[in-house]
Specification:
By secondary structure, the protein is of the alpha+beta class. 31% of the residues lie in helices and 28% in strands. Helix 1 (3-14) packs parallel to helix 4. The relative contact order is 0.21.
Length: 169
């Protein structure tokens, strides 16, 4: 494993925002949002959180894909987006669900085109798409696998909330 990648992972684990962020955004399908994990749960650390809204699945529930500015950890299941000022990896294998109120606590930083959104969703659903993606980890102990686990652990309770909604119906 590359030493620089391990150092980058250690920095990622320590990363926290210096101040609490507060926004008031509206929901945009295809919107890329930025804010703090703490905005979703006061018990969470004040870590940066990026996500892409891909669909409205219920009256007040949206499916989103976790995204990260740590694109060097991208795997073959991640889509890379160049925003000009920064690159983002959209983790197509890391979806979760947020309400409109929760999304409003984040800042809309970019909106992708409908065509680009359709390509990302098609890629996520297993269809071939002309899209830029990351690399596949080679070894089981690859640092990118640890990164993926940590990314999922940050939002896992929001991932499974769809089952609560389905149970109510």
């Amino acid at each position: 494993m590359a030493k620089w990648l391990k150092c980058l992972y250690e920095e990622y684990l320590q990363e926290e925002l210096e101040e609490e962020l507060s926004f008031n955004s509206s929901v945009v399908i295809g919107g890329l949002y930025f804010g703090s994990l703490k905005a979703l749960d006061e018990n969470k650390p004040n870590k940066p959180l990026y996500f892409l809204v891909i669909d409205k699945v219920d009256d007040d529930l949206y499916e989103v894909l976790k995204a990260t500015d740590h694109y060097l950890f991208a795997t073959a299941s991640d889509v890379l987006i160049d925003l000009g000022t920064m690159k983002i990896a959209v983790e197509t294998d890391n979806n979760f669900y947020l309400t409109e109120k929760e999304i409003s606590k984040f800042k809309l930083i970019h909106q992708i085109s409908e065509e680009e959104l359709n390509k990302i969703v098609a890629f996520r659903d297993g269809q071939s798409a002309e899209i830029k993606k990351g690399f596949t980890p080679i070894f089981e102990d690859d640092i990118r696998r640890k990164f993926k686990r940590e990314e999922f652990n940050q939002i896992k309770e929001f991932h499974s909330r769809i089952f609560e909604i389905l149970e109510e119906d």
